[in-house]
Every structure is written in structure tokens, then in C-alpha cells.
Design brief:
- Pathway: Carbohydrate biosynthesis; dTDP-L-rhamnose biosynthesis.
- Residues 6-285 form the RmlD-like substrate binding domain.
- This is dTDP-4-dehydrorhamnose reductase.
- By secondary structure, this protein is an alpha/beta fold.
- It has a single domain (4-160, 185-219, 258-275), classed as NAD(P)-binding Rossmann-like Domain (Rossmann fold), CATH 3.40.50.720.
- The chain has helices at residues 13-22, 42-52, 73-94, 126-141, 162-172, 189-205, 223-234, 266-269, 277-293, and strands spanning 4-8, 28-32, 56-59, 97-103, 146-151, 154-155, 176-179, 183-184, 187-188, 211-214, 221-222, 241-244.
- The longest helix is centred in the first third of the chain and has 22 residues, at 73-94.
- It is globular and about 55 Å long.
Length: 294
């Protein structure tokens, strides 16, 4: 009998691609939206585990409204922190593996070189603090079966994101002013979904050590650089994209200035890190364009 993979947050952009990736594997995927399991409710989680008996849980459920978390940190913590702990405790009870999707926001964002997986954390926003609580819960409760996969700058066809927004704005704006003082790694959800599945398979096989992994593309750029590449792929003039600073777009939650993550940990699991962001974007683009423009 194939192992059951319970994927929480099933309606989300990443979860959709995880479920699609599992369709081609020896696995029984369970799409667990909130109607199936509320990760903040221990009774709901317990019932889901008793019904489905998962071998692997991929936790894509999260409070992702970064700015709203600044004034609703307790509510964000219930999902990102408490919810992760409840899942981890259920996994421990049932002998399941947990893949916890986390974020670059748990780091200070002020480095000058890629953050290693064991770099000190130092979140500067409520969102980052709540996600860090989730990381700690998973690693504490499941030292041998807990996997934290940090990602950043996600885009995909299954939801709203920066790349799709820029595709839309190219149609209606003569010029665009885009931040050029935040560096990161644009990451396609299809690529991340593949690594999550392979990591879970490695966990079941005993070939992937538990701990922290960084699930972002190779290379690095700024939001400005990413937008120029989007315009190039659209056949539009990249000069219509103009650089600006974060000070022009002040938000309630501070954004990391440096979100470039290192990927050395994948070697221990025998899995290749995600490819360069430009290569991924080029392959993803027809799908993204179709999703945005129909």
C-alpha cells in the first residue's frame, strides 16, 4: 500500500503543486484544506490522523499576511506556531514525517553572503517571529523526523504573486518603479514542490537527515532585476522598469534587505539544490502568462 501524504493548506499555491507532483509517485495524496483539518485545533488534527494515517505531512498551511501580522500577532502565532506544534505532536504519536514550510523572514536579512542553514535567526517582524516559533516546535518535538524547509519570493500559476502582478501591470503601466535594494531568490513553486516530495521520500527511506533546508532557487537578484527579466520575457522594453528604494514603499512590516539563502544541506540528503532562478522563470513563464491572461 502506498504511503499517505497529507498536504495541509491544500488550496494554496504551493500545496497545489505539491499535490500535482505527488500524482506521479507511489503515494496516496490527501488534499487537506481547512475543511479537512484545522491545524490550530488538536481534535481536528487528531481526527484527520486517525482517518488518513499519514506517513508524511507537508504543512503548507500558514498565516502569510505579513503586514497584518504586525497588529494580529497572536492570531498569526496560532497558525504559524501553535498549529505547527500540534501537527508535530500528532506526527510523533503516529510515527509520521513532517515537512514544515518556513520563510526567510526568520533571519535578520542584513547579511552580505548567503545564509547557511545553521545561521543564527533574528526575525524583525511579527510574521517572522511566528514562523520561527513553528520551526522551533517542529525541531523540538521531532528531532529525527522534523524537516524545516525555508523558502522565499515564491511564484506560481496557482495563486497571486509578484510575477503575475508584474505581468498584469505591464499591460497597463507605461513605466514601473520597482525596489532595487532588496536581494533574494525568485522561486517557482513547481521546483520547491519537487524538492519537498524528494525530501519526504528521502525521509521515509532514511537517506535524508532531519533538520533545516533552504528551498530557494540558485543565483540572486532584486525585485527590480526580476521585473526587468519579466518584461524581457514578455517582449517588452526592460527600460520601462525603473529602480527605486524601499523607503518609497513603506510597509507595516519591515522587509528583509538580504534574503539570499545557502543550499549546502541538500548534499547530505543526496538531492540537488534548485536551479538558477532565470532558468526556472523561463520554463515557468508560459504557464504563468496563461494563468494571468487566459
Amino acid at each position: 500500500m502506498s504511503p499517505v501524504w497529507l498536504v495541509t493548506g491544500a488550496a494554496g499555491m504551493l500545496a497545489r503543486d505539491v499535490l500535482a507532483r505527488l500524482a506521479g509517485e507511489e503515494a496516496t495524496p490527501v488534499a487537506a484544506g481547512r475543511d479537512v483539518v484545522d491545524i490550530t485545533d488538536a481534535a481536528s488534527v487528531r481526527a484527520a490522523f486517525e482517518k488518513h494515517r499519514p506517513a508524511v505531512v507537508v504543512n503548507c498551511a500558514a498565516w502569510t499576511a505579513v503586514d497584518d501580522a504586525e497588529t494580529q500577532e497572536e492570531a498569526a502565532l496560532r497558525v504559524n506556531g501553535t498549529g505547527a506544534r500540534i501537527l508535530a505532536e500528532a506526527c510523533r504519536e503516529h510515527g509520521a514525517v513532517l515537512l514544515q514550510v518556513s520563510t526567510d523572514y526568520v533571519l535578520a536579512g542584513d547579511a552580505a553572503q548567503p545564509y547557511a542553514e545553521d545561521a543564527p535567526t533574528g526575525p524583525r517582524s511579527a510574521y517572522g517571529r511566528t514562523k520561527l516559533e513553528g520551526e522551533r516546535a517542529v525541531l523540538d518535538v521531532l528531532p529525527e523526523a522534523g524537516y524545516v524547509v525555508r523558502t522565499a519570493w515564491l511564484y506560481g500559476a496557482g495563486g497571486g504573486n509578484f510575477v503575475r502582478t508584474m505581468i498584469k501591470l505591464e499591460d497597463v503601466k507605461d513605466t514601473l518603479d520597482v525596489v532595487d535594494d532588496q536581494r533574494g531568490q525568485p522561486t517557482w513553486t513547481v521546483d520547491l514542490a519537487d524538492r519537498l516530495v524528494r525530501l519526504g521520500q528521502g525521509a521515509l527511506a532514511g537517506t535524508a537527515p532531519a533538520g533545516v533546508y533552504h528551498g530557494t532557487s540558485g543565483g540572486e537578484t532584486t525585485w527590480f532585476g526580476l521585473t526587468r527579466e519579466i518584461f524581457r520575457l514578455l517582449g517588452a522594453d526592460p527600460e520601462r522598469v525603473r529602480p527605486t528604494t524601499s523607503e518609497v514603499f513603506v510597509r507595516p512590516a519591515p522587509r528583509p534587505a538580504f534574503s539570499v539563502l545557502g543550499h549546502d544541506r541538500w548534499k547530505a540528503a543526496g538531492i540537488e539544490p534548485i536551479r538558477d532562478w532565470r532558468d526556472a522563470l523561463g520554463e515557468a513563464f508560459p504557464t504563468l502568462l496563461a494563468a494571468e491572461r487566459g
